[in-house]
Amino acid sequence: VLFRSGLGTPSAPVLRASLREIRESLDEMVFSVDPRKDHLDSFLGYLAEMARRLVDDSDLRLEIDLPESVPVVRMGPQLRHAVLLAARESIANALRHSRARRLALRARWSPPVLELVVDDDGVGFDPSRVDPNRNGLANQRRRLAGVGGECHFESAPGEGTRTRFRVTVSA
């Protein structure tokens, strides 16, 4: 990808960004399948860490609101992976498109349902006018549906965007 013919050699910042993205993707995959990390509390901690890493080089103010404690509940690898990828996509969309000043990541645990919300104060968008050739929003819905979950978007021009994920986490 980096060395397509005719594009020349990528610059050092482009290489660093690409390597960081590859490292983060590998880290997420390893986390998703590590049986020592297959509990809800590990997942929530990793999710917060991932959000901080993604937002780290931006001007966004990140607010994280997670349950202080959750019971020991197993969260299988497919579920962890699907929710991580969907949350990552939502945060990346806010970074790329929203021009927001604030991004909030919230989680609520109401057994057996985990609800995650990614909320920004950016420019928003009209969900009915999303380009069908873009895959980000559809991928989020597909990922969550694949593990029995739901993904909903609330947005309007000038009103920011709220993405809500709901999944059942059961032993």
Q: Strand tally, please?
A: 5
Annotation field: number of helices: 4
**H/E element order:** HHEHEEHEE
Any low-confidence stretches, pLDDT <50, length ≥5? none
Overall helicity: 40-55%
* SS content category: alpha+beta
Report the radius of gyration as a whole number of Å.
17 Å
Mean pLDDT: 85
Distance between the termini: 41 Å
Estimate what percentage of residues fall within beta strands: 15-25%
Quick one: overall form? globular
What strand line-up does the widest sheet have? 1-2-3-5-4
Main sheet characteristics: 5 strands, mixed
Q: What does this entry look like structurally?
A:
With 171 residues, this protein is an alpha+beta fold. The chain is 42% helix and 21% strand. It has helices at 12-33, 40-55, 77-98, 136-146; strands spanning 61-65, 102-110, 113-120, 150-155, 161-168. Helix 1 packs antiparallel against helix 3, helix 2 (40-55) runs parallel beside helix 3 and helix 3 (77-98) packs antiparallel against helix 4 (136-146). The longest helix has 22 residues, at 12-33. The N and C termini lie far apart (41 Å).
